[in-house]
Amino acid sequence: MDWHIEPFDADDRYQRESWRELAAHAGDSAVLLPEFVFTCAETLGRPGLRFACYGAPEHPRALALLDLSDPVRPEAFVAPQMPLGAWIQAQDTRMERACDTLIAETPLALQFSMRQLDPRFLSRPDEAARVDTVDYIRTAWVELDGSFENYWAARGKNLRANVKKQRNRLVRESIATRMEVLTRPEDMIRAVADYAALESRGWKAAEGTAVNVEHRQFEFYRRMLQRFALQGKARVYRYFFGESLVACELCVCHGDEIVILKTTHDESVHPFSPATLLREEMFEALFREDEIRRVEFYGPLMEWHTRWTDRARDVYHVNFYRNALAGAAVRALRKAKTLTERPESASAG
Question: Do the domains 3-136+316-348 and 145-292 sit in the same CATH topology, yes or no?
Fold first, then answer.
C-alpha cells in the first residue's frame, strides 16, 4: 500500500470530502473535521503543506497534512490552536506500517513525528526500536449522564458553595446576569471580535497569546466558526453582568459532542468568577437540551477542571524513525541534553 502526496488545497473538493469521510470513521470529532483542520492549515499553516493519502484514493486508509519544511524531521501538521494533529486513519490501519511507508517517500527524513494524538481515536503504539511515544498533556472531559441536579450534587462542596455565594452577592448588589448563545454565521464576526476585546484585557495579552484582530488566529477563529455555523454546529456562549460582557467560550459541536476551544473572562470583576457562573448555566442548559452527551476541554488538565469532572486521559506524541540506528541516535542526543540541563534545573529550583 502506497502514499500519494500532493499540494494541500483547502478548496479541493476531493481532499476536503475524503478527509470528512475518513474522519467519520476515525473519531468523528468536531476538531477532526475539515472545517476545523483545513481552516487552521489555510490560515495558520506554513506555505507548502502537503495532502497525503495512504491507500486507494477512493478508499484511503490514512490521511495527513504534512509539514515538510524540515526535510530531516517532517511531521504531521499541527498548530497551537489545534487540540489534535492532522493525522487520521481507519481503525484497522497499522500506524507503524503507514509510517514506515511514508518515511520511505521522504528520502532525507530520519524521523517522522505525529503530535497530539488522542487515545480515544488512536491506540497508543508500543515503544520499539523505531517507535517512541511521548506524553503530551492530560486532558479532561465531562459525560452528561442523567440529570443536571444529580451532576451538580456530585460536584465538590467548595464549588457548589462558591457558586451559591457569588450568586447571593450578585443579588445583594443588584447585578443582573444573563447567558446568551450565538449560533448564526452572521454573528460569528462579532462574537470573535468581542471575545478578542475581552481577552486582550487579561493576562494572555501580557503573554502575547491573546486573540486579537491583528493576529492570524483571529481570522482562523472567525472563518472556522462561520463554517461550523453554516451547519448549525457553532456555539459561542456569552455571559453578561448587566450589559457588560464578562465571560465567553468559543465552542464547536458535532454529533453528541461539544468542544470548548477557548475561554476568557473579565478579570476586573474579581472576586466574581464569571467563567464559573457561565459554565454552570451552560452545563445546566446542555443537560436540559438532551442532545449533547460529552463535553471536551482538550486543554492541559488544571485544578479547576477537576471541580467539574473526574475523567481524564493522556494525549501523546509519536516519533517514528527510519531505522533502529536513527532511533538510537535520537535517544542518545535526548539523554545527553537531559543530563546537560539537569544541574541548571536543579539550581533554579
Answer: yes
